[in-house]
Specification:
Layout lengths: L1 H32 L5 E15 L7 E13 L2 E5 L17 H9 L6 E6 L7 E2 L6 H18 L1
Antiparallel strand pairs: 1-2, 1-4, 2-3, 4-5
Helix pairs in contact: 1-3
Length: 152
């Protein structure tokens, strides 16, 4: 029974780091491709600051924007929430600098129109600030390296 539990924990850890690798790799690919995606006009539904804490809730306060927007792609109404693929001060890269998040949110006022980039093959994948981020490389290398290390 103890051996089974150890194996289960091992598999869970490997799957966690495989997921981190997947997120980093997909952010790299989408980030590199997104500046060339088609664009449509969308509308901001919600823009606010989301607050959290580092170290599982016991560390310093961090902030990131929470933006929801609607757009039409391939004739279908869609809702998105991705500001960027991992750029600093976005939903996947929180910061202790609340002013930076406020600056970013100033661009997204509820009810305003904005440009939405969407993936033509996967029109539910959209972004407001297209482009590559080094955070995606870090996630892919860290996640992939940990999986490789555990399985070696």
């Amino acid at each position: 029974m103890e051996n089974f539990f150890s194996s289960l924990v091992f598999v869970a850890i490997v799957l966690f780091f495989a997921y981190i690798f997947y997120i980093g790799l997909s952010f790299m690919v989408f980030g590199l491709l997104s500046p060339n995606w088609p664009t449509v006009t969308g509308r901001v539904l919600e823009a606010k600051i989301r607050t959290g804490r580092t170290n599982g809730g016991s560390g310093k306060k961090v902030y990131c924007p929470k933006v929801r927007y609607q757009y039409r792609a391939n004739g279908m109404p869609r809702t998105g929430s991705r500001v960027s693929f991992g750029k600093y001060g976005t939903q996947w890269n929180s910061t202790a600098n609340r002013d930076l998040v406020n600056e970013r949110l100033d661009q997204y006022q509820p009810g305003e129109e904005l440009t939405v980039y969407y993936c033509p093959q996967l029109p539910f994948v959209s972004v407001l600030d297209p482009g590559f981020s080094w955070v995606s490389v870090f996630l892919a290398v860290w996640g992939g390296g940990m999986v490789y290390g555990f399985l070696s």
